[in-house]
């Protein structure tokens, strides 16, 4: 019978198989020769003490115990060419995993994506980075795979439903992700590896009889007697189906406006907003690992920090070790920042969104927009930042200490943000209450993380697309919209997820509810 052990070992032992086998042998009090296989089930880093340890959960097989390499296989997806059709609006993680689940349940998905396929998006990403041209349908937020494809690929979630999480991770491995994501406490695929996985998912959907329509934007919903009948595209084509999963992501402002215009119930939702801070990765390593050089056995250090400032949470968001900052505007006349890391996390800089939680009362100056008040608040800051930075895709930037001292930075060094920066006093970008909270918050951050508060750190503004500024309400049980039968608000855009994994889980849940309703 294999034995399960919880170990705490040095980074060197964790990285070296023979040293690990020796350590395990001592732990189970046998000769190293008698250890047949050590399977790592979970791995995490404990950097709370000066001597950094790696936490391992392992399964130990002795040489007389048979070990069979587990093989992760995809489900037995059916051919659904002639099955009942379900429209999915959006090919992000919620939409793609909803499509796979529908196929598994014997239903035919028609995935409608306003942007280009995962390869075609690259030209438009180059255009925004190099030429400052924003394609409203194809950018870092829109296109096959959604915002996660080219803006990071982190796979951890606060979801407590571990079974659901493991299923999504196993499906990703089945489609080509490294099995390491099943082991790591904070799994990450990397922007360089996600595109092929996304493409393979799409090819499976099509192979099974589903449809994926690119460069097809939804411009209207066909609703009769408060029941979904289908959608209308920008070309005037109508695609009929009485079940529609709305999985557009958090930046589909035209969809939010369409719902509001058609008097389909939506609600303003609080979100968080702030800046993206970039430090030298070496500095973050030094702070987090309490050493001058992290060595070859430790990965670039992440950080996570939360403070309460004037009754508001201010916290790190989407932290990218060894990563870069990307331009994530979805319309001309605005600038937006986000961050991503390649799979090796080998860039010289670390960046993180540093954001402040907003409240519905903050949107009062935009009350005339009703449920879209938060969206208009968000938009006003993005447009102001665009204007202050020179009306290109350059963003306002300021050194961190200078920001806390209300001082324009005399110079801004070259950062990882390719379109470039303009030195701006950030107080001009944000409302006064937000500026005050961030100034105080960074001071508190510096006290908790010695060395964090430095003028080597450059703030880029704004980090504004943390989550959807609206919620599209749905019934807790059926997951249908409260008002429109057959409409299933789903994922980040509807306010029910926050990241790749939780969005994928929500997509599967909506697909299962549709299948249940059709079997009644």
Describe this protein's structure.
It is a single chain. With 520 residues, the protein is of the alpha+beta class. It folds into three domains: 3-62, Alpha-Beta Plaits (2-Layer Sandwich), CATH 3.30.70; 85-266 and 471-519, 3-Layer(bba) Sandwich (FAD/NAD(P)-binding domain); 270-463, no CATH class. It contains 13 helices and 22 strands. It has helices at 11-15, 17-28, 93-104, 121-131, 147-151, 162-174, 194-207, 253-261, 281-289, 373-388, 400-404, 432-448, 500-519, and strands at 3-9, 35-46, 53-62, 85-89, 108-112, 211-213, 218-224, 227-233, 238-240, 244-246, 267-268, 272-280, 306-309, 312-320, 324-327, 337-340, 349-357, 395-399, 421-423, 458-463, 470-471, 487-489. The protein has a seven-stranded mixed sheet with strand order 13-14-17-12-20-18-19. A hairpin with a 4-residue loop joins strand 8 and strand 9. It is globular and about 75 Å long. The protein starts with a strand and ends with a helix.
- CATH hierarchy, class of the largest domain: Alpha Beta
* CATH fold category name of the largest domain: FAD/NAD(P)-binding domain
Count of structural domains: 3
- The CATH homologous superfamily of the largest domain corresponds to FAD/NAD(P)-binding domain
Q: Structural class, judged by helices and strands?
A: alpha+beta
**What about the largest sheet?**
7 strands, mixed
Overall pLDDT confidence: 95
CATH architectural group of the largest domain: 3-Layer(bba) Sandwich
The helix count comes to: 13
Radius of gyration: 24 Å
InterPro entries: FAD-binding_protein, FAD-dep_OxRdtase_2_FAD-bd, FAD-depend_C, FAD/NAD-bd_sf, MnmG_N
Cofactor: FAD
GO molecular function: oxidoreductase activity
Domain FAD-dependent protein C-terminal: 270-466
């Amino acid at each position: 019978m294999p034995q399960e052990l919880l170990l705490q070992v040095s980074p060197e032992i964790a990285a070296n198989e023979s040293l690990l086998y020796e350590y395990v042998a001592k732990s189970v009090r046998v000769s190293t020769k008698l250890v047949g296989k050590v399977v790592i089930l979970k791995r995490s880093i404990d950097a709370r003490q000066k001597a950094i340890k790696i936490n391992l959960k392992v399964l130990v097989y002795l040489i007389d115990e048979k070990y069979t390499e587990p093989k992760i296989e995809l489900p037995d997806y059916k051919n659904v060419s002639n099955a009942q059709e379900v429209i999915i609006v959006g090919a992000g993680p919620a939409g793609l995993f909803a499509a796979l689940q529908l196929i598994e349940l014997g239903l035919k998905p028609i995935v409608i994506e306003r942007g280009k396929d995962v390869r075609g998006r690259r030209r438009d990403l180059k255009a925004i980075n190099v030429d400052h041209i924003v394609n409203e349908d194809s950018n870092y937020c829109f296109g096959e795979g959604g915002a996660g494809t080219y803006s990071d690929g982190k796979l951890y979630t606060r979801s407590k439903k571990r079974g659901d999480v493991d299923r999504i991770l196993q499906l990703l491995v089945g489609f080509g992700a490294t099995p390491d994501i099943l082991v790591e406490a904070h799994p990450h695929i990397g922007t360089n590896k996600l595109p092929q996985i996304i493409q393979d998912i799409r090819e499976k959907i099509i192979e099974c009889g589903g449809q994926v329509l690119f460069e097809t934007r939804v411009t209207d919903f066909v609703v009769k007697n408060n029941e979904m009948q289908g959608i209308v595209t920008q070309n005037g084509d109508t695609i009929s189906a009485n079940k529609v999963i709305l999985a557009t992501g958090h930046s589909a402002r035209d969809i939010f406006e369409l719902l509001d215009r058609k008097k389909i119930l939506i609600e303003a939702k609080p979100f968080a907003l702030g800046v993206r801070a970039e430090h030298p990765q070496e500095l973050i390593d030094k702070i987090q690992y309490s050493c001058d050089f992290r060595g070859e056995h430790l990965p670039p250090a992440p950080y996570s920090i939360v403070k309460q400032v004037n009754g508001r949470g201010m916290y790190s968001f989407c932290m990218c070790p060894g990563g870069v900052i990307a331009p994530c505007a979805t319309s001309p006349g605005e600038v937006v920042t986000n961050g991503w890391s390649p799979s090796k996390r080998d860039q010289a800089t670390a960046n993180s969104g540093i954001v402040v939680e907003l409240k519905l009362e903050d949107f009062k100056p935009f009350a005339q927009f009703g449920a879209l008040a938060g969206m208009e608040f968000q938009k006003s800051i993005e447009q102001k930042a665009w204007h202050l930075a020179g009306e290109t895709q350059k963003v306002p930037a300021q050194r961190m200490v200078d920001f806390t001292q209300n001082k324009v930075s005399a110079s801004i060094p070259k950062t990882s943000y390719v379109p470039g920066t303009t030195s701006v006093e950030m107080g001009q970008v944000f409302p006064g209450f937000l500026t005050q909270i961030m100034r105080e918050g960074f001071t508190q951050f510096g006290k908790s993380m010695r060395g964090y508060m430095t003028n080597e750190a450059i703030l880029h503004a704004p980090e504004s697309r943390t989550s959807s500024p609206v919620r599209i309400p749905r019934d807790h049980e059926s997951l249908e919209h409260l008002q429109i039968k057959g409409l299933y608000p789903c994922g980040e855009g509807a306010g029910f997820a926050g990241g790749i994994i939780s969005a994928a889980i929500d997509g599967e849940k909506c697909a299962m509810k549709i299948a249940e309703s059709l079997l009644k």
